[in-house]
What does this fold into?
Amino acid sequence: MHAASAIDTLTLAIPPFRPLDSLDHVADHLLQAGYEPVLSVPIVDAERPVGMISRHQLHALFMKKFGRELYGKRPVADFMIRDFLSIEADTPLAQAAQYLTRHMRQPVSEDFVITREGLYQGVGAVLSLLGAMERQAVQHSAQLGHAYRELKASQAQLIQSEKMASLGQMVAGVAHEINTPLGYVRNNVEMVGEFTSQTARLLHAYRELSRALLAADGDAAQVTAALDSIEALEALIDPELLQADQSTLLTDTLYGLNQISELVSGLKDFSRLDQAPTDNVSLNDCVESALLIARNSLKNKVEVIRQLGDLPPLRCAPSQINQVLLNLLTNAAQAIADRGRILIRTWAGEGNVCISVQDTGKGMPPEVLKKIFDPFFTTKPVGEGTGLGLSIAYKIVEQHGGRIRVASQPGRGTRFVVELPCPTVTTPAAVSARLLQA
Ligand SMILES: Nc1ncnc2c1ncn2[C@@H]1O[C@H](COP(=O)(O)OP(=O)(O)OP(=O)(O)O)[C@@H](O)[C@H]1O
Ligand SMILES: [Mg+2]
It folds into this structure.
């Protein structure tokens, strides 16, 4: 138990009276220094508290007719309260307060005796107990506030590190994706380089011919030689074919470069670190962005079918929504053992936009389904899954004011539906209702 929370911090060292002391003696002493803070004084016999007497009681007795003469000489034990309140010094504040409120008599400002192992220690005042309780409550609420802020920060940290982890997984795939076009772009450029040197040889031969033709002395032998060497070169290099090949190579190269820049900008979009919501986000663009990043884990085994509806612009943090979608797509791909399909649908609902990711994977039994949103729950081998993906997806969707639902059948597949609120959504039914009203 923490010392600061125990009742002994409230102990007032009030000198006690003995049971045989007279009321006069008590009354005289009460006026002296040391007793000011309390309304009641303790009566102690051989260090054990046996009673209490209050100023109020003394006053009432002495105010009676001849009160002081009648009662002044009598021992205080004749008048003291015997069922006074007594609390052990190491009792926690909250427990003491509970005990006092349960047993306290009026007036509430009455004092109580504090003991240690049954022996007199001092006196406590109900008001100072209340004050201490209040200070403790303030301190607890500050601690709670601090803990809450820390929890929020670590949650944001968790989302960020999961994002980094999933990004890490994806980087290998994306690097591979970039490598393929990069490979043939390099090849093409090398070939264009070779073609350029062939073109240069042809050009050189043509210039030799033109020089021979234009020469003032007009040597026919030189012209014939130039023509022969052109013929020999053209047998090796067909200029028309060369031009056609070169333009195909350049078109392919441009295509490859576009693919690379698409991947790079997709990656940049995806990994945006901003958490702040942005207006005018297209959920369909988020789908494309996540698909681009997930491409490597989907290809060769998953047929992706998109049914993307007309969606109004959405206010959301796109990088976080990308993270949700990427996790749903990765989970779906991981659930498909051999070959399968992922159907992605988006549509505008009543006041929201929805996206469903449905796979033909292995599905989940009810006992797994129950736990999938729990942090660290995973059925994947160590090192493959952290079990954070869905819990973070859940948190992100919740922070956007939306919800995420799932239905699954073992052996048949799983469907996740994410709904995000979008107040501007108006369905045709809502539009016609409004038109009718107008
Ligand atoms: N589409 C799905 N089909 C079948 N099981 C799924 C599907 N999505 C999730 N699960 C189950 O839910 C569990 C938790 O998923 P979650 O995304 O939270 O973690 P994980 O995929 O195991 O690990 P991580 O996402 O961190 O790599 C998975 O281990 C899997 O058992
Ligand atoms: Mg996952």
